[in-house]
Amino acid sequence: MKWEVAIRKQVGDGPNAFSLDMSFASDARRLVLFGPSGAGKTMTLKAIAGLVRPDAGRIAFDGEAMFDAGAGVDLAARSRRLGYLFQEYALFPHLTVRQNIAFGLDSGLRNPRRGRADETTDRWLDALELRRLQARFPDQLSGGQRQRVALARALAASPRALLLDEPFAAMDLPLRGKLRAELHELQARFALPIVLITHDSADVDAFADEIVYIDAGRATASQVPVQEESAMKSSARNQLTGRVSRILPGAVDDEVEIALPGGQSIVAIVTHESVTKLGLAVGIDAFALVKASSVIVVADLDGARLSARNQLAGTIVRMQPGAVNAEVVIDVGGGATIVALVTQGSASSLALAPGVAASAVFKASSVIVGVPR
User: Fold this and answer.
1) Contact between 270 and 277 (Cβ < 8 Å)
2) Class of 3-233 per CATH?
3) Integer Cα distance of 168 and 290 in angstroms
4) 108-134 exposure pattern, b = at least 16 Cβ within 10 A, e = fewer
5) Can you spell out the DSSP letters for 305-322?
6) Where, residue-wise, is CATH 2.40.50.100 in the chain?
7) What is the rounded distance in angstroms from the CA atom of residue 182 to the CA atom of residue 197?
8) Residue 324, phi then psi, degrees to nearest 5
9) Could you read off the pLDDT tens digit of each residue along the chain, which spans 373 residues?
10) pTM given for the model
11) Residue 110: which residues within 8 A CB-CB, separation 6 or more?
12) For the structural domain made of 237-370, what CATH number should be given?
């Protein structure tokens, strides 16, 4: 799976002219296009989706050209099989939740019948917990419910990837946090590649495996301003694969243990609902996602008293200095490594260096569990 984008687009002329000259390639499962408002992020996303036609260049996904000006290729948006979530969700106000989800399943512009029943719509009503809301109209829904309807509509068409246009921009801060968590869980459940555009570094922290920084219509990832560096690096995620070795039911959440190939294990706190939806059971393959910014490094674990449940012992194999933090890579056995971000002062005082024994420590509540597709 790889995105390849190299396009040019001129909009308008005179003092209000805007020139897009975008070029990047990425095989990240969660790619974030990050930059200020008006930088060209939405135009780039719409070009990928087939909603804007570039003047020149090429767009490909997973080796398939969706647009190639030189070869005369320009697939229609529907043929690209990419789910697009608009910033304002673009739900049809005169259609119910069920009708909105079903709208993209048929060709043509005819609205789905109010009482229409079909397996695909039912599946996504249940998957996104919308069954009880199926007869409501968009103006009868909360912001989070509208987002789930828009996601269900995009997913009902069986897309190869999701394109998200600033999905949290219109929400207040508490709702943003909740929906970021829901969307991240959804992506982990269905393992769909995501391209998300944002000007909010909190979205970068929550989602990005890789970031393309966009400014004035151009990708400038190699020239990211220093003040953005810590926000971007803190988005780095660790993915550790293993097998579920234990599930301990709790009053509200369950405790899930994942055994790693090197003999150590990770504990995660997972809701009852998520355990069921993911089909978690002892013996199945699973993976754990942990932000690098959630990991602390302990040089002497024997002498430390820590409340964090996860304490993976290993050896530092690489140190990468940064403008603010040092990136510390720890080998925890079985071919697995985990990345932590440590301030330069802490790295110096702990005498961290390649070859030094150290432990990666993080809370069970900071772990997101997923299962392979």
Assistant:
1) no
2) alpha beta
3) 22
4) eeeebeeeeeeebbeebbebbebeebb
5) ----SEEEEEEEEEEE--
6) 237-370
7) 17
8) -120, -50
9) 789 999 999 988 877 788 999 988 888 888 888 888 888 999 999 999 999 999 999 999 999 999 999 999 999 998 999 988 887 778 888 989 888 888 867 655 566 677 677 788 888 888 778 889 988 998 898 877 887 888 888 888 888 999 998 887 766 666 677 777 777 777 777 778 899 998 877 777 777 777 888 888 888 643 333 334 444 444 456 788 899 999 998 877 899 999 999 999 999 998 887 888 788 999 999 988 888 878 999 988 776 678 788 999 999 998 877 655 778 999 999 988 998 888 878 888 888 999 999 999 999 988 888 887 5
10) 0.59
11) none
12) 2.40.50.100
> Within its chain, how far is the Cα of 373 from the centroid?
16
- Using CB atoms within 10 Å of the CB of residue 142, give its burial: 0 to 12 exposed, 13 to 18 middle, 19+ buried: exposed
Region(s) of the chain under CATH 3.40.50.300: 3-233
| Residue 349: how many other CB atoms lie within 10 Å | 10
> How long a stretch of residues is the chain?
373
Angle of CA points 198, 202, 207, to nearest 5°: 75
Distance, in Å, from the CA atom of 148 to the CA atom of 125, rounded to the nearest integer, reads: 9
Report the distance separating Cα 44 and Cα 7, nearest Å: 9
- Taken in order 97, 103, 109, 114, is the CA torsion positive or negative? negative
| Cα maximum dimension of the chain | 69
Nearest to 204 by CA among 291, 288, 145: 291
- Residue 23 CB-density burial (10 A; 0-12 exposed, 13-18 middle, 19+ buried): middle
Dihedral pair phi/psi, residue 84, rounded to 5°? -115, 125
Tokens of 240: 């550790």
If one counts every other C-beta atom within 10 angstroms of the C-beta of residue 303, the result is: 7
